[in-house]
Write a structure and sequence with these properties.
Blueprint lengths: L6 E4 L9 H14 L6 H19 L3 H15 L6 H15 L9 H8 L4 E7 L2 H11 L7 E5 L4 H10 L7 E5 L2 H10 L3 E4 L21 E3 L6 H7 L2
Parallel strand pairs: 1-2, 1-4, 2-3, 4-5, 5-6
Length: 234
């Protein structure tokens, strides 16, 4: 795989900018709101189950989270939640959507260094308007030749992206914080992946084992180590 031929895809949330920490702070406020009704573990478990049940309908992102949070609160309070408390949950979702975009360390510098020599793409899942807003506020958009905001990240999604952009899988490297969404589907298609862990990971993205794909799967601690991986693939 020659360096000049390499196409590099980047996940966005928790790879280029902080995201899960915003959800974690919202979870803390949500637990506090329902603390007089249930313990934190029950609240977390029930909310997650609601999110999973609604995922096919609402998709990923703040809006789906907010709707699931309201539904869960109605259930856990025995329909006794007040209009003011529901408004508080709506306001919480609005605050999440308006949160400033905070880049991860090295994101801007690494993209600026790689863009002149490689074709870069953003491949991220979530709400279209929210992801477009975050990309615009990040000031990173100029580095990317294409932006793919998808409803799911699986083998079919990546295969479709490869066909649309005429990318040979063996010449593609995906960079992201989720082994499940960013790495495994790409490896299955013959591409390569770089896992950059974030200190928080949504339970839906957990996998039990690290993939075995010598020469195609890499783990680094920060994005600042990515250029060395790219050079090693030359």
């Amino acid at each position: 795989m020659a360096a000049r031929e390499l196409v590099i895809g980047f996940d966005a949330d928790d790879t280029l900018w902080h995201n899960e920490i915003i959800f974690e702070r919202s979870h803390e406020r949500y637990r506090a709101l329902l603390a007089r009704h249930h313990d934190a573990a029950t609240v977390d478990r029930t909310l997650f189950a609601t999110e999973m049940r609604n995922l096919d309908l609402y998709g990923y992102g703040v809006k789906g989270f907010t709707l699931s949070a309201i539904e869960t609160a109605i259930h856990l309070t025995g329909r006794k939640i007040s209009a003011d408390e529901i408004q508080e949950l709506i306001d919480l979702g609005r605050e999440m959507l308006a949160h400033p975009v905070e880049l991860l360390d090295g994101a801007a510098e690494i993209l600026a260094a790689l863009a002149p020599r490689h074709r870069l793409l953003v491949i991220t899942k979530g709400d279209l308007r929210d992801q477009e807003r975050k990309l615009a506020k990040s000031a990173l958009g100029a580095h990317f030749g294409a932006v793919e905001i998808v409803s799911e990240k699986n083998r079919d999604t990546y295969a479709h992206i490869f066909r649309r952009h005429a990318i040979a899988p063996e010449r593609f490297l995906m960079v992201g914080n989720s082994i499940k969404s960013d790495i495994l589907p790409v490896l299955a298609l013959g591409g390569a992946g770089v896992h950059v862990p974030y200190h928080l990971l949504w339970a839906h993205e957990h996998v039990e084992e690290v993939p075995a794909a010598p020469g195609r799967f890499f783990q680094i601690e920060t994005l600042r180590q990515l250029p060395a991986v790219v050079a090693a693939l030359a």
